[in-house]
Amino acid sequence: MIQKIWFTLVWSFIKLGLYFYSNKITVLGRKNIPKRGAVLFAVNHPNGLIDPLFVTTTNSRQNHFLVRAASFKNPTIKKILESLYLMPIYRIRDGIKQLSNNQEIFEKCYKILDKGETLMIFPEGSHDKKRSIRPLSKGFTRIVFGALEKHKDLEIKVVPVGITYQHPSDFPTKVTINYGKPIGTREIFETNSGAKSINILKAKVSEQLEKLSVHITDDSNYETTLQKLTDAQVDFTKVDEVNKMIQSESIPNSKNAKTNFVKPLLYLIILNSIIPFFIWKIVRNKIDEIEFIDTFRFALNWFLCTFFYCLQAYIVSLFYGNTIGLFYLTISAFIVLLYSKLAPTNAKKHKEFNEFGKQV
Description:
eight-stranded mixed beta sheet; disordered C terminus
């Protein structure tokens, strides 16, 4: 019970933070989420640890997560992650000896699904900013079919989830979370051999993911197609519309990006958040993977800005009274919200960053 209360508090805090961080969050197919019973959410993975945050805060099911084991190296962070229902999954790159630890994790997953709860996994196996659905690993099928074999009366619905960003690593972010149709797994498991069951389930999930997110075939024409879409300033979060452009090869002509008329607000935000801003700039220089820009920017600035705005409001209240302190805190939050909702979210190549990032 205590863990659920803790999870709900953190979930609510993160959901509020994502609202401030995002220009627009579009959720499609929410009706496809089963209200009860075992569910495995199979999600594409373009943008680091912020991906599961968007998924878990846009559905009412309490999720358990499988994330890469490297995130659990620090003992303190390990305890925090475990308290939020995160579990490590080991890959070959973590060392062959570590792979044996996965069996214990799989057993935990079987119990979670048998209790009619939900599990979130990223079957591509790693994050990648490319606008393509990559080949899926069979790890998630092993969990599903392992649970079905162990619990004969269990049915597990696999729900593919597509995430598409207007531009990964940009602020404010604009994203679409698209829930696909549930895939029943008991019939696949019982009417096919093991290898065939795996291939069928992987194919069904891949097929949906390619429609639920913007998918450009990763071939020799990938960069050309992406460049044309970027030059046309398409709204990538309009997934169906963009996928039709790609499939019909009917991409609009180039157009100019929208001018950011509210940029002065950004400088005001930086001035009011000067300590968090400099801390972020230091941390930013240590981030090697572009896919983690959004994750660290959101987490660091949401927690730091919340703390420093409250601290600054307290200091203001000491000199000018509680009413002025509360007014300062309200205006500070309102300016951030105003900028995030009004700033243009232009289509950009992945190498470009705005003022809160760094060009690479």
